[in-house]
């Protein structure tokens, strides 16, 4: 069984290093995108909490309101 020459091993190592560098860049980009998405999710969650509180307050206020009845002149 023949062994690869020093040149082909060096080329293989260079290709692997390039591949690793590319993967590291991709991982960093994905990490940045994930962090941004998480920030957006937190904003949406906060808005949903505020809207839920407002809705519940409005709903509670409508339950306390007097019943709508016909005016006396009808």
Query: What oligomeric state is this?
Result: single chain
Sheet/helix structural class = mainly alpha
Q: Major sheet: size, sense and barrel closure?
A: none
Number of helices: 1
Distance between the termini: 106 Å
Q: Percent of residues in helical segments?
A: over 70%
Low-confidence stretches: none
Q: Which series of helices and strands comes N to C? A: H
Rg, please?
Answer: 32 Å
Strand content: under 5%
Strand elements, count? 0
Overall average residue pLDDT: 89
Q: Which shape, going by the Cα principal axes?
A: rod-shaped
Keywords:
74 residues; mainly alpha; 1 helix; 0% strand
Structure description:
- By secondary structure, the chain is mainly alpha-helical.
- It is rod-shaped.
- The protein starts with 5 loop residues before the first helix and ends in a 10-residue tail after the last helix.
- The mean pLDDT is 89.
């Amino acid at each position: 069984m023949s062994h690869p020459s020093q040149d082909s091993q060096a080329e293989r190592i260079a290709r692997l290093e390039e591949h690793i560098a590319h993967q590291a860049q991709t991982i960093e980009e994905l990490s940045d995108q994930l962090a941004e998405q998480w920030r957006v999710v937190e904003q949406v969650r906060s808005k949903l909490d505020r809207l839920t509180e407002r809705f519940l307050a409005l709903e509670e206020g409508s339950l306390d309101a007097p019943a709508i009845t016909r005016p006396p002149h009808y």
